[in-house]
Amino acid sequence: MPMFLPNDDPGANFPALLRRTGLTETGPGGERLGGDIPHATTCVAVRFADGVIMAGDRRATSGNLISHRTMEKVVEADRHSAVAIAGAAGPAMEMIRVFQLQLEHYEKVEGSALSLEGKANQLSMMVRGNLQGAFAGLAVVPIFGGYDLRRETGRVWAYDVTGGRYEEREYVTTGSGSLHAGTVIKIGFRDDLDRSGVLALVAKALWEAADADSATGGPDALRGIYPVVATITADGFTPVADDELATTFESVAEEVRAR
Length: 259
What we know:
Blueprint: H1 14-20, E1 39-40, E2 43-48, E3 51-56, E4 60-62, E5 65-68, E6 74-78, E7 81-84, E8 87-88, H2 89-110, H3 116-129, H4 131-135, E9 143-148, E10 153-159, E11 165-168, E12 171-174, H5 178-188, H6 195-212, E13 228-233, E14 236-239, H7 242-258
Antiparallel strand pairs: 1-4, 1-8, 2-3, 2-12, 3-13, 4-5, 6-7, 7-9, 9-10, 10-11, 13-14
Helix pairs in contact: 5-6, 6-7
């Protein structure tokens, strides 16, 4: 059993602890866990007057390789809520499918949709249920957002690998490029931003994240691949069209060139 002195705290990263002590992260058959499996990266959610805008880049990486260029990281949970994922792609997509099924089942049985707070709690339990996988390097760290029909406002939540959920007042980010994206949003966020203003801010945040983080994919005009962006308002979940995203990212590119 490894021992550490008080001034040599190994931290809370269990896979890193295993590597530091010379142990390996292996499964029952001796395979390495959490190794070359696809991982999703940077996602953001920002509140504005009419609801929430959620966005995520399209790149999934396996170590140093780009395994997917068109991954959908922002997924509609139901009409008035959505989940954006970061972490191990396989467990994350399975978690979202089960989450969607649970919300649909509840609505059919009860005759009405689960409250937005209840949806956030349900997702928290599912993240907690993946704790063993997180210890093996297969962590899933989503963000959740939606339009609260009872309060008539948008709301966003952040999560950690233990299932802890934390509602944020303005915005939330997750993934390997979250520090860069969050810094851009923190500097540019204002309470009076409308949909177009928040869309431009989100685009700039993902651009800067992709510029500083190799695991985050930026807009790919050559292939026509742009981040997945959606608005969630009283009218429901609405994806932002690629034509509008192309115009928005071109404005960001012009700003970068001028700078």
